[in-house]
Write a structure and sequence with these properties.
The complex is a heterodimer.
Chain A: H1 2-24, H2 39-72, H3 88-116, E1 124-131, E2 134-139, E3 151-154, E4 156-160, E5 165-171, E6 176-178, E7 187-189, E8 195-199, E9 205-210, E10 223-229, H4 231-241, H5 253-265, H6 286-289, E11 306-307, E12 312-313, H7 317-324, H8 328-336, H9 346-359, H10 386-396
Parallel strand pairs in A: 1-5, 4-10
Antiparallel strand pairs in A: 1-2, 2-3, 5-8, 6-7, 9-10, 11-12
Chain B: H1 4-26, H2 32-54, H3 61-68, H4 77-93, H5 96-120, H6 126-163, H7 166-189, H8 195-219, H9 223-231, E1 261-268, E2 271-275, E3 285-287, E4 294-300, E5 309-318, E6 321-328, E7 336-342, E8 354-357, E9 365-369
Parallel strand pairs in B: 1-4, 3-9
Antiparallel strand pairs in B: 1-2, 4-7, 5-6, 5-8, 8-9
Classes of the chains: A alpha+beta, B alpha+beta.
Chain lengths: 400, 371
């Protein structure tokens, strides 16, 4: 009987250990919380590892004691042993030891919390705004980094390495939570409030994240990526973002696409510098069409690697792997190359233009918009023809 | 007593009457649903009356013979019911409140008269019949009458307070509260006080209060309330340097929680400065997110009262007619602060930036950038 129990126990233990071991071998785990890539995440890591070790040891001791007791004192028909009630010395000891452990953990936890909340040495501010289901980043002017005009982008947060960046987070609709595990802990983005979250990356690279506060239908598709560039490369990125709009050449497919964009897309999507035929600037009015009030600014779209709230890659898997896996020294140049026709993920981009709600759940059924006054919670199906899609793709490729 | 059939129908009648009242209050008094529910109430009331009258067909000669020979007492409920029907008719062509009063009167009549009729036929003993009527109806009548009494007192008192000046209102409030306390004290120290005296005091007070309320309604609202309503002082804002008698009166000048601020704008020695959380030093521009409520703190550290105005471009109010879009804080005294929440949906037109400024203070402004 005992032998059978021990045999089953062995199977369970070995099975669990094997599963844990295999899980720890995952090679593609961009949101691994145990691999810090910046000083803020490192602080959390330095706290969580010893705490995890202490908690693990205590857990093992308790589990071993419980298992030992279960096996040793199992019912074998023996008489009930002598009962004792109360052991002050033992009880006080078992109270003081956990209290001391928690006190020590508490001291280091508080110190880490205060360290992570320090903002006095901030070098760069970026406003981060959550919205169902994408993130908007706007960079206020910052002469030290060459940001002479505000920059606005979405999907990918671009930062310089070795720079203390302060994210000022809020939300336009419901509570979201910003979390890039490699760079810092998570911080809620709450409507009407500004929450501060500091990040800093040690090395150039792309760091993945995920909204961690359930925020509606496409919460699971609300992703984000932080792109860390060397300071020189970041300056190039800024220069590109500040570059004036260049209209496509006349009598090209892209020019026709610009017209389609003006008629269909510019109601919600802003492209800075875009003008109508009479020269008047095009100011998008997402507040009139989108429930949360904004739509991604598509200026320099092809300088990003993702679209639709970072749910889809703007580049093909091969090109993306080439950027993601590149060495630090070459990463910046590859990322800054942006998206050209050979690397464009035509399948997903065309699918998105053809019927966006079919690719990402967004409450975009026009028949169900009574509660929002007819406004959409995401991109609707615009009913574009294949010809219009062809033109739009050609136009979007010029937004570099 | 009540037979099973009559209990069932009474419950259906009560439920349908309650549904009717709720429907008319919460949905619409003249909607088709109300008509259907009125029909349901009428039908179930009729069946209930018949069932009660015939005692569900199970009444025996012995049980009813004594009651039948007794003459029913007089009742005011037919009169109330008739008045209720009149109010319902008048209400359908005047205002819903009259209609609702009519329905309430009819429902009260249905309940009261039914129970009264039933109790009078319970036995030949008038006192016993009255007692069982009270056992059933007093738990309903007392709370309802108390609620009506409280509502009348509150309504009458509020009419008085709205008609007289604020100072007179404070005095009357103190006097009334003192009088109530004194009467209460008198009753507590003299428990042997005659019931009639207490009743007389209560009736006189109630009549006086209701009379004062009616008289106050005749006088109307006091002048400043009339003027404020006519001139829409509650939403009107003056964003110039001048002081508005109403908008700037009694302003809140302290902020308890500042964590949601996008920027703090300070007026110091005639100079306007901006501080953004996390950015060292003073700024001459702030960035406000598009289509998102952004909170600005205005802190006046200068001598005198000043307001912060946000100049948010122009909007078209008619063909070829443009109007400045300006919103502002109230006038803030030295050392105080106030929120200004901006929701800007579109970037500024090139060459005409959005700005924050202090009316009356020339050459000082903070640019508001909307990416």
């Amino acid at each position: 009987m005992l032998g059978r129990v021990i045999g089953r126990l062995k199977t369970v233990i070995l099975g669990t250990a094997g599963t844990v071991f295999l899980a720890s071998c995952a090679s593609n785990a961009p949101q691994d919380t145990w691999v810090p890539k910046g000083p803020n995440a490192q602080k959390i890591d330095s706290l969580q590892k010893p705490v995890f070790a202490v908690a693990g040891i205590i857990g093992l001791i308790v589990a071993a004691a419980v298992i030992y007791s279960i096996i040793k004192f199992r019912d074998k028909g023996q008489p009930i042993p002598k009962q004792s009630h109360g052991n002050p010395a033992l009880e006080i000891t078992l109270t003081i030891i956990p209290a001391l452990i928690l006190a020590v953990v508490g001291v280091f936890t508080f110190r880490t919390v205060f360290d992570l909340n320090k903002t006095s040495d901030t070098q760069m501010i970026i406003n981060v705004t959550g919205q169902q289901w994408w993130w908007e980043y706007d960079y206020p002017t910052n002469n030290e980094y060459g940001i002479t005009q505000p920059i606005i982008t979405s999907g990918q947060l671009v930062i310089p390495v070795g720079t203390k960046v302060l994210l000022r987070e809020t939300s336009r609709d419901v509570i979201h939570s910003y979390w890039i595990p490699a760079l810092n802990g998570k911080r809620d983005a709450v409507p009407g409030r500004i929450t501060l979250n500091r990040i800093e990356a040690d090395e150039p690279g792309i760091y993945a994240g995920q909204c961690t506060e359930f925020c509606g239908l496409s919460h699971a598709n609300m992703r984000m990526e932080a792109v860390a560039l060397s300071k020189e490369d970041f300056a190039k990125w800024v220069a590109n973002e500040l570059k004036p709009y260049e209209a496509p050449a006349k009598n090209t497919l892209a020019k026709e696409g610009e017209t389609v964009f003006l008629n269909q897309c510019s109601r919600c999507h802003q492209v800075n510098g875009l003008t109508r035929a009479d020269g008047t600037p095009v100011i998008a009015a997402p507040d009139e069409n989108v429930w949360s009030g904004a739509a991604p600014n598509l200026s320099h779209l092809m300088s990003r690697n993702t679209f639709a709230g970072a749910m889809f890659n703007l580049v093909t898997p091969e090109c993306r792997t080439d950027v993601w896996k590149s060495e630090s020294a070459t990463f910046g140049a590859k990322y800054l190359a942006g998206v050209d026709e050979s690397c464009l993920n035509q399948t997903d981009l065309r699918g998105w233009l053809r019927n966006a709600p079919a690719m990402k759940p967004m409450y975009a059924n026009p028949a169900l918009l009574a509660a929002t006054g007819g406004k959409y919670r995401g991109m609707p199906n615009l009913g574009l023809s294949e010809s219009d899609i062809e033109k739009l793709v050609a136009y979007l490729l010029t937004l570099k | 007593m009540f037979t099973p059939g009559s209990k069932y129908l009474i419950a259906i009648t009560g439920l349908s009457a309650f549904s009717l009242a709720m429907y008319m209050l919460l949905v619409h008094p003249s909607a088709l649903g109300a008509v259907a529910l009125i029909g349901l109430v009428a039908a179930t009331s009729l069946l209930t009356g018949i069932t009660l009258f015939t005692r569900d067909g199970h009444a025996t000669e012995d049980q009813t013979s004594a009651a039948i020979v007794d003459t029913p007492t007089s009742s005011m409920w037919p009169l109330v019911g008739a008045a209720g029907f009149a109010l319902v008719l008048v209400g359908t062509i005047t205002t819903p409140i009259v209609f609702i009063f009519g329905i309430v009167a009819i429902l009260a009549t249905l309940v009261e008269w039914t129970v009264q009729a039933w109790s009078e036929r319970s036995s030949a003993d008038v006192a016993y019949n009255a007692s069982i009527r009270e056992r059933i109806l007093n738990p309903i009548e007392y709370p309802v009458l108390a609620a009506i009494g409280v509502a009348v007192i509150i309504f009458s008192f509020s009419r008085v307070m709205l008609a007289i000046s604020k100072d007179a209102g404070a005095i009357i409030f103190i006097v009334a509260a003192s009088a109530i306390s004194l009467v209460g004290l008198l009753i507590s120290v003299r428990p042997q006080l005659k019931k009639g005296i207490v009743q007389t005091i209560a009736v006189l007070a109630a009549v006086g209060l209701v009379g004062a309320g009616i008289a106050s309604m005749g006088f109307g609202l006091r002048e400043d309330l009339v003027v404020a309503a006519e001139e829409d002082h509650y939403s009107h804002q003056e964003c110039g340097a001048e002081k508005s008698d109403h908008f700037d009166k009694g302003v809140s000048e302290t902020i308890s929680a500042t964590s949601g601020a996008d920027a703090t704008i300070e007026l110091v020695d005639g100079k306007l400065t901006a501080q953004v959380q996390g950015i060292e030093g003073l700024q001459d521009s702030i960035t406000v997110r598009r289509s998102n409520p952004s909170n600005i703190i205005f802190r006046n550290k200068d001598a005198g009262e000043f307001r912060l105005a946000a100049n948010l471009g122009k909007k078209q109010i008619a063909d070829g007619v443009m109007e400045d879009v300006v919103t502002c804080t109230q006038l803030i005294s030295e050392g105080s602060e106030q929120w200004l929440t901006l929701t800007i949906n579109k970037p500024a037109v090139s060459g005409e930036p959005y700005t924050l400024s202090v009316p009356g203070l020339e050459g000082q402004s903070i640019v508001v950038v909307v990416p």
